[in-house]
Specification:
The protein is an alpha/beta fold and 761 residues long. It is 33% helix and 16% strand. The strands form nine sheets. It has a seven-stranded mixed β-sheet, covered by helices on one side. A four-stranded parallel β-sheet has the order 11-10-9-13, sandwiched between helices. Strand 1 (27-33) and strand 2 (42-48) form a beta hairpin.
């Protein structure tokens, strides 16, 4: 009997091994960094041939460690979406027809150069959307296209959500993306203002699985406090939540800073020798005592003072603010004051505080001479109509429509839209839509025929994320932990569809007069050799030879990694990083926890933290004048939702299913006062602008505030988003004034706008 049992067991093992071998022949596993949001989680894509059978978390991923949110499942549906464009479209007689790539490029060559010849370089504008951040080809080759065009008219989604933070950190620390992020795994106290990382998993703070990290913080005795006009998903897991009047964050923050000086709680620690302007800040905030700020911001003076004391006396603490603090009239001041508080409490660049990541590649604060630099330069030129200053090389997106529809010298005649949908994402999209129809020519690089690309004359679709390689150029600069990961293509490209970097380079070649049939590889080599001559001089031939086996965006990643802070410096540091080493680690390479970087990270002319930039101090006068302003009866704010991070996600079944989410949240008291009923319809009006939305009554809303999610409004004609069109929702931005901006950064004001709310039968 024992022998028989052994034989039986052996037979089972053989059968299992045979089944496993069959499975191995039929299935494969590909690794992919999720492209849907800033969390950038590591995924495992299970494939049977070319068929995607399963998407799951990569438990071995060095950064996301097996975390997965519902959006990742949508990657399969995005790849298979019948509405996703696979071939170029050319508009003929008002209708789109499929075209070959040669035909599409030829159409661009026929129509673009004559406009530039007649009206000049500034007649061409470019606009970039948020998905560009998840596409290394677009990020790496847009500068080459922009240089070829030579136009000042550059626009992006940054000026509807993050440019105030870029401006403030640029002035304080010397580079646009030197954004300190909370070192959450070692923090004792976290004050979150106008941010919802439970849903976003960080924004300008890449922190997958915020929930478990927040839970661990509290379990070790730490505390989280949330300041928000809505009791968000983050507030639900926090120790305390305080409502704040939308748009009044600046007064709350000024009250905190005043308290630190007033109660002698300033503790610079080792930052004292690296900081300029403390005395100027002290003098500037004297009039902003919490007792004056309380009425304006809606938070009691005693609460403001107690929070300031908690920040000052906690051993390891950080203040973090995001969308709510940026998308308002005082976006730049709020962004600045958050980091002022982190400096004054000694928590900037401290373990458990707000720290600077050290990205393996592409970060300006790891290049050049460390500890000092020329700082950031803005205002080199101004927009033609509103006179808005450029910030980080771009104009506010809200200026785009007026630059198209206002006649005169310098009027925009051509637009190249790249992975963006500003008709939905920017205020007063109706005006922009009309303006787009006035253009002489428009090219859209997009995977969908959406509310913006429908206006184009030529649409060049990108690849599915599963068909392209990826390295996170942007989000490694905001990551809670240093790391390096690379995603090779999971699936082969079908047909002859080019990478997006190739399309960008081909348009650049057309602009430079080289023609649409230019040999892209030869052109790319020539541009790279020019760049290397400028950057490394005589060593350029050696570096070029080392890079030559690679091409395109992948070659640019190799160059940045090998010359980066962890790189092998092309043989000088044999143990250093190369792209090959990262490719050999499918789940990534951990580069360790964040470490103190001041003064090395600084790129200011003084080599110090510039705590009191004159531009920001001067703007405090505007806040002072606004202190006695009466509160509107009702204001509107946006909100972020887990399953609809961007407008194109509404066309994916796994993310679109479930309860209707484009609802107007209102407090029960407001509902009773305005005769609103749950599930009923309400009219929301801002002057002549008006939308109707379904009401959802929620005690989690601050009285006097209504909230709508962003990215909806899929009821415009001429689109090809079938599923999104079934439940189009309403567009919050249709209510907003494109001329209302933070005057320093030009960022659109999306929050705290006064509206009238009334019930509809």
């Amino acid at each position: 009997m024992p022998a028989l049992q052994t034989h039986h067991d052996r037979r089972i093992v053989v059968l299992i091994e045979a089944e496993r071998n069959i499975m191995t022949e039929q299935t494969s596993i590909a690794h992919r960094i999720c492209p849907f949001c800033e969390a950038c989680c590591g995924l495992e894509i299970e494939l049977e041939g070319k068929k995607i059978t399963r998407i799951r978390a990569d438990k071995a991923d060095v950064f996301s460690a097996g975390f997965l949110c519902p959006k990742a499942i949508g990657l399969k549906e995005l790849h298979e979406d019948p509405d996703r464009l696979r071939s170029p479209l050319i508009k003929r007689n008002g209708k789109f027809i499929e075209a070959s790539w040669d035909e599409a490029y030829a159409e661009i060559e026929r129509r673009l150069p004559p406009v530039i010849a007649q009206y000049g370089a500034d007649a061409v504008a470019t606009v970039l959307g948020n998905p560009v951040s998840h596409k290394m080809g677009l990020l790496l080759y847009f500068p080459k296209l922009a240089k070829a065009l030579g136009s000042r008219n550059i626009y992006s989604a940054s000026s509807v959500d993050q440019i105030p933070k870029m401006l403030s950190v640029g002035l304080m620390f010397g580079s646009w993306l030197s954004v300190p992020v909370p070192d959450i795994e070692r923090s004792d106290f976290l004050l979150i203002i106008g941010a919802n990382p439970m849903v976003s998993n960080g924004s300008l703070w890449t922190v997958p699985d915020f929930r478990s990290k927040a839970k661990s913080l509290r379990e070790r005795g730490g505390k989280i406090v949330v300041i928000d006009p809505r009791k968000t998903e983050t507030a639900e897991v926090a120790d305390a939540h305080h409502f704040i009047r939308p748009g009044a964050d600046v007064f709350f923050l000024l009250g905190l800073v005043h308290t630190l000086f007033d109660e002698k709680l300033v503790r610079l620690g080792r930052l004292a020798e690296h900081t300029l302007g403390v005395e100027q800040v002290d003098e500037a905030v004297k009039e902003f005592a919490p007792e004056r700020m309380a009425r304006r911001c809606g938070i009691a003076a005693a609460t403001i003072r107690e929070l300031a004391r908690s920040l000052a006396t906690s051993e390891r603490a950080a203040v973090y603010g995001r969308i709510g603090t940026c998308t308002q009239e005082y976006g730049s001041l709020c962004s600045w004051l958050i980091d002022v508080i982190n400096v004054l409490t000694g928590h900037l660049d401290q373990e458990g505080g707000a720290m600077f990541p050290k990205a393996a590649a592409f970060a300006a604060n790891t290049r050049g001479k460390s500890g000092s630099g020329r700082g950031v330069i803005s205002g080199r030129h101004h927009s033609r109509v509103s006179g808005m200053a450029e910030i980080s090389g771009e104009f506010p997106l809200t200026c785009l429509a007026e630059e198209i529809d206002t006649p005169g010298t310098g009027q925009i005649k051509v637009l190249i839209a790249i992975a963006g949908n500003p008709v939905l994402s920017a205020p007063n999209g109706a005006r922009l839509a009309k303006a787009l129809d006035q253009l002489d020519f428009m090219v859209s690089m997009d995977i969908y025929l959406n509310e913006t690309s429908r206006h184009a004359d030529v649409i060049l679709p990108g690849l599915s994320p599963l068909e392209e390689a990826h390295y996170d150029m942007t989000f490694t600069q905001f990551s809670y932990r240093n790391h390096a990961r690379y995603s090779p293509p999971a699936l082969a490209t079908e047909g002859k569809q080019p990478d997006e970097w190739e399309s960008m380079l081909r348009i650049a070649a057309i602009v430079k007069g080289l023609g649409s049939n230019t040999d892209i590889d030869v052109f790319d080599d020539a541009l790279l050799e020019q760049d290397l001559q400028r950057s490394v001089g005589d060593a350029s031939a050696h570096v070029m030879a080392a890079l030559r086996p690679l091409r395109g965006a992948e070659r640019q990643v190799e160059l940045a990694l090998r010359s980066g802070p962890y790189g092998d410096q092309f043989g000088q540091q044999p143990d250093g990083l190369t792209l090959a080493k990262i490719k050999a680690a499918p789940s990534g390479i951990d580069l360790g926890a964040l470490t103190p970087r001041i003064p090395e990270v600084l790129r200011t002319p003084s080599g110090k933290i510039e705590l009191a930039p004159q531009m920001l101090l001067a703007d405090l006068g505007r806040a002072s004048a606004d202190l006695e302003a009466p509160a509107p009866d009702m204001v509107i704010i946006g909100r972020r939702q887990l399953r609809s991070n961007n407008s194109w996600m509404h066309n994916l079944p796994a993310l679109a299913k479930g309860t209707y989410r484009c609802t107007a949240l209102v407090h029960p008291d407001d509902a009773q006062r305005l005769h609103l009923v749950d599930g009923g319809m309400a009219q929301i009006r801002n002057g002549a602008r008006m939308i109707t939305a379904q009401v959802e009554i929620s005690a989690g809303m601050m009285p006097g505030v209504v909230s709508l999610p962003h990215g909806w409004g899929h009821d415009l004609p001429g689109t090809q988003l079938a599923l999104a069109g079934e439940r189009p929702g309403v567009n919050l931005n249709a209510l907003l004034d494109e001329n209302l901006r933070d005057p320093l950064s030009g960022n659109a004001v999306l929050s705290g706008v006064a509206v009238e709310l009334s019930a509809l039968e």
